[in-house]
Amino acid sequence: MTVFTQRTIRWSGAEAAQQEKAGVASVLMWALMFVPFGLSAQTLEPRETVRIDRVAFTGNWKTKVFAVRSELLFEDGDEVNLAIIEESIQRLRNRGYFYEVDWELVEEAGQTVLNISVRERWTTFPVVYFDTSDLYTTVMLGGYDQNLAGLGFELLLTYTGLYYRNTNLHNFSLRYGHPRLGGTRFSLEVVCAADSLFSYLADPASKKRFDAYLHRTRHVELVGAYEWPGRLETALILGFAHDIHDPSLPADEGYTGFDSVEEIPAVGLRVAWDRIDLVDQRRSGFLIHGEGRVRVPVGGTGETFFVGKLEGQYHHIFAREWLNLSTRLRLDYSSASIAPYRMHRGEFLRGGDGMEYHSRWVAGVSGELGVAPIRRNWLFLELTGFIDLAWGGNAFAAALKASPMLRVGPGARASWPPIAGLYLSFDYGWSETGDPSFRLSMVRFF
User: Fold this and answer.
1) 82 and 156 in one domain?
2) Residue 365: predicted pLDDT
3) DSSP letter assigned to residue 181
4) Which of 120, 146, 177 is the last residue of a domain?
5) pTM of the predicted model, to two decimals?
6) What are 68-94's pLDDT values in tens digits?
7) 3-class secondary structure, 310
8) Angle at the Cα of 357 from the Cα atoms of 355 and 362, rounded to 5 degrees
9) Which of 345, 264, 333 is nearest to 303 (CA)?
10) What would the pLDDT profile of 396-407 be if each residue is shown by its tens digit?
11) Residues 254, 112: one domain?
12) 3-state SS string over 390-413?
């Protein structure tokens, strides 16, 4: 094998130095002593193209070749430029399977070969979440593998316990994701869950509780998506829910509650433009995400209603990669007249109470500014300050509060690069009334 000296050879994302083509093998061997892994030559200019006859993979001891190849934006025999190669390599990094992804171009037996070398990450880890207030405590335990058996599939299993002062509720969920079905641009996601929620209703004017309800639901949702060029994704959402409003627990509290059983099919659409890249252990870029569902209850006295979400995110790394800014804008809407179907929990404010809304519109702004004092191959530590602000409806907690509502405080983020997705987040914040709360999670808030 000889080094293909008319194109750039790269290691760990950095361009090698340029050198003219050597005509004598001894000169080539001398250069190899000073340049890692090979000899670099003329840079592949942005407008220059090269035919890739074959792609070779090394280091993927767990991940199957088809799962790696499915992220590439070209096939063997295609003419590609530097931008296409770089975007394909970034897609592999974004998947999170690999600790490092490097590439080089070589000439072998008269063919141009793109060698992609990777270092695998450990991708199976536990999921832990803890959130507490004076009204209830939430505990989530589970497991997640984002590269199941090296096939590129995602599997998430969780148990969530909601511990109120007078009762305990238990929730279970399973999520399965299959990106790049058969090496195509189609992907599939399946979600099955059994959820229960106990909450109070109050008069917005007097802020006095007048009822409570227990909402149990069993639902399954299928999401089939197609990715267009430029990372634009469109998806069709099909769902079905079995909803029960059980008056038993509200009766124990002295309330009437709701008493209904409904089957609720749903259909929806999702559009997402995801330009967020994984850089080290942080994110850079932007995301625009919108989705809507129409839910049509079957039987009973239910109503047809629409629920929608619009979200934008922006992440920026600066100051020589010491600082990181993350922001999010989100707007939720529901046309349902029944309060339980206009509930939004924990989506806008992190930690503590005051996370339940009953208005049709709920809007929120979140921001984080972090500094990374430790950026090692074995540990990435970031210290942050955060602020969450939300508007919409009422929040029901020990003291009934009206919007706007606030969370502000310090936080810390720790991750371990050799282990994909192993992420620990701690936030200690204060509300608009000065009440403290904290959030410990292995799941990003946004």
Assistant:
1) no
2) 95
3) G
4) 120
5) 0.80
6) 898 888 889 899 888 899 999 999 988
7) strand
8) 105
9) 264
10) 444 445 567 888
11) no
12) EECCEECCCCCEECCEEEEEEEEE
Closest CA to 367 of 330, 421, 402: 330
Given this model, what pLDDT does residue 22 score? 33
The one-letter amino acid code at 402 reads A
**Which CATH number belongs to the domain containing residue 46 in this structure?**
3.10.20.310
Which residue shows structure tokens 């709360």?
A: 437
Token pair 């625009």 in the structure block, residue: 288
Could you tell me which residues come within 8 angstroms of residue 113 by beta carbon, excluding any fewer than 6 positions away? Answer: 4, 52, 53, 54, 55, 56, 105, 106, 107
295 Cβ neighbours under 8 A, 6+ residues apart: 241, 264, 265, 266, 304, 305, 306, 307, 341
| CA angle (326, 328, 330) in 5-degree steps | 170
Q: Which two tokens stand for residue 371?
A: 């500094």
Indicate the Cα dihedral angle 301, 295, 305, 227, nearest 10°: 180
Q: Give burial (CB, 10 Å; 0-12/13-18/19+) of 196.
A: buried
Q: Residue 272's closest CA among 203, 341, 223? A: 223
Q: What one-character DSSP code corresponds to residue 20?
A: P
Cβ atoms within 10 Å, residue 33: 6
* Domain assignment present for 87: yes
pLDDT value of residue 412: 96
Is 323 strand, coil or helix? strand
Comparing CA positions, the residue from 43, 152, 27, 50 lying closest to residue 97 is 152
Under DSSP, is residue 90 helix (H, G, I), strand (E, B) or coil?
Answer: helix
CA distance 249 to 131: 22
Task: Name the domain boundary from 120, 136, 160.
Answer: 120
pLDDT < 70: residue spans in the chain: 1-44, 46, 133-135, 202-207, 299-301, 345, 351-358, 393-403, 421
CB 373 within 8 A of CB 383: yes
Helix, strand or coil, per DSSP, at residue 387: strand
Residue-wise DSSP of 114-145: EEEEEEE-B-EEEEEEEEE-SSEEEEEEEEEE
Q: Tell me the residue range of the domain where 33 lies.
A: 10-120
